[in-house]
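Researcher: Please predict.
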Amino acid sequence: MEHLTATQFAADRIRESILSGDLKPGDRLQQHALAALYGVSHVPLREALRGLESEGFISISPRRGAFVQPLTREDAQDIFELRALTECRAMLLSGPNLKAGQIAVLREICEEADGIEELTESIEGEGRLALLNEWHDVNARFHRVLYSECDRPRLLALIETLWKNTSRYVMLLRHRGGYFGVSQAEHWKMVEAVSDGRTEDAVKLIHEHILGAAERTISLLPR
C-alpha cells in the first residue's frame, strides 16, 4: 500500500465510521488502536486525521488527542448557508453551458434515484442502510452533473468539501419518512428548469433545496 493510498484508506474508514454512527460525537480516536485496525502506520494515520479535521469531522488537541466533532445547530446552519452560496454560484455559471447529453444524464440519475426511493419503502435493516448510502452517492452525482460546466475548479473543490461537512448532518434526514420524496421532486424541477434554459429558476430551486434541507436537519438537533 503506497503512502498516499494508506492515508486515504484510513481517512475513508474513519469517515465511514462517523457517518454510520459507530463513532459518535465526542468519542476519542485512539490512534494506536486505529492504526492496528486498518493496518497502517502512524504517519499516514496522522495525515488522515489532519485531513478529517480540515473537513470538520474531528477536532485535534495537542494535549487531549483527536475527538469526533459534535453535531450542533450553529455548525449546520453555517455549512448549509455556505453550500447555498457556492452551489447557487456554480449553477448560475454552469446552467447556460449544459448540453443535451448532460441533461439526459440528469434525467437518468433522477430515474435511478426514484427506483431507490421506492425500494427503501419496503426494505429494513442493513439492506435499507445500503440503499440509503447508494442514494447518497446518486444524489452527489446529480449535483456534480448540474455544476459540471461552471469552469471553476476551485469552486467545485470547495463544494465537495462542504458536501463532506454536511454529510454528517444529512444522514439524519435519510431515516426520516418523506425526505426522499421531497428531494426527488425538487431534483426533477431542477432538471426541467435547465432543460428549458431557465437557469435563474434553477438557481432559485437550488437555494430553496439546500436551505430546506438545512431547516429539516436543524429541527432534528438538540437546542
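Model: The two ends are 44 Å apart (CA to CA).
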